[in-house]
Specification:
This protein is mainly β. The chain has three helices and 21 strands. The protein has two domains: about 70 residues, Immunoglobulin-like (Sandwich); about 160 residues, Glucose Permease (Domain IIA) (Distorted Sandwich), CATH 2.70.70. Helix content is about 15%, strand content about 40%. Strand 6 and strand 7 form a beta hairpin. The radius of gyration is 19 Å and the shape is globular. The structure holds zinc ion.
């Protein structure tokens, strides 16, 4: 896996054009300066660029250390699926609309906050060792009506399975929410967050510093679900990216 990554870096250094799919993360080394017309953050001497799922194919120019490189954004053919969930999770009762709007605003505020400090010093781990039951990006239709896409990775987990922090950080949210159910959000700094959904029990509180591998919650079946599992979302500067591709990419640049 590291070989592919190094090849990618090498082709960039020699000035070749690069391409990426919507929903993925781009990692580019820089020494002194960069100019990108896309959302981004930095970690050490790496530029981290999340490409939104909804972004249409395009070609962008990036200026890195005085060199201009051409970035082509391609449309990935993500699979499609039909899901049946409780009707109240597609048509929420009017009495709950205020709560849902409040939870949405609260999350938006969290993701738009960028801590300058980074808590990421080691490679990422997975929140639990299990089969992936639904990958990122699947185009979804709920109850034949609501069109959406899967904004994270689902892991098979029976209710009560320990869930670990994927890296060091600070807990910014630990509460029950309408769609995500029991949720924990960890701030890893530099605009990077990991989010764990459908939990049944919390083992941490907001404001708490957590270490990679620390048990933060127990998995569950709360929120908009078809069965028990753990959902993991990664947000970079407010943009959801494929968690597995993000972890693979980051780990190629981070050493234990
Ligand atoms: Zn999910």
């Amino acid at each position: 896996m590291k070989k592919i990554f190094l090849l990618f870096v090498a082709s960039y250094l020699f000035g070749a054009a690069i391409s990426i799919y919507n929903g993925q993360t781009l990692l580019i080394p820089f020494k002194k300066s960069y100019e990108v017309n896309l959302s981004h953050t930095t970690l050490k001497s790496w530029l981290i660029i999340p490409i939104p799922y909804t972004m249409k194919p395009a070609t962008k120019k990036l200026k890195i250390d005085g060199k201009t490189i051409s970035l082509t954004i391609k449309q990935k053919k993500y699979p499609k699926e039909q899901l049946e969930v409780a009707s109240s999770k597609v048509h929420p009762p009017k009495s709950l609309l205020k709560r849902i709007a409040k939870e949405y605003q609260e999350a938006k505020k969290i993701y738009s906050t960028t801590s300058q400090q980074s808590y990421i010093t080691k490679p990422f781990i997975l929140p639990l060792q299990s089969k992936i039951t639904d990958p990122f990006g699947v185009a979804r239709v709920f109850n034949n009506r609501l069109k959406s896409y899967h904004s994270g990775t689902d892991f098979r987990a029976r209710v009560g399975t320990p869930v670990k922090a994927i890296n060091d950080g600070v807990v910014v949210l630990a509460k029950k929410r309408y769609y995500a159910g029991g949720s924990v959000i960890i701030n890893h700094g530099r605009g990077i967050y990991s989010c764990y959904y459908h939990l049944s029990r919390f083992k941490v509180k907001p404001g708490e510093r957590v270490k990679r591998g620390q048990i933060i919650a127990l998995s569950g079946k709360s929120g908009r679900i078809t069965g028990p599992h753990l959902h993991l979302t990664i947000k970079i500067k407010g943009i959801s990216v494929d968690p597995m591709q993000f972890i693979y990419l980051m780990n190629a640049s981070l050493k234990d």
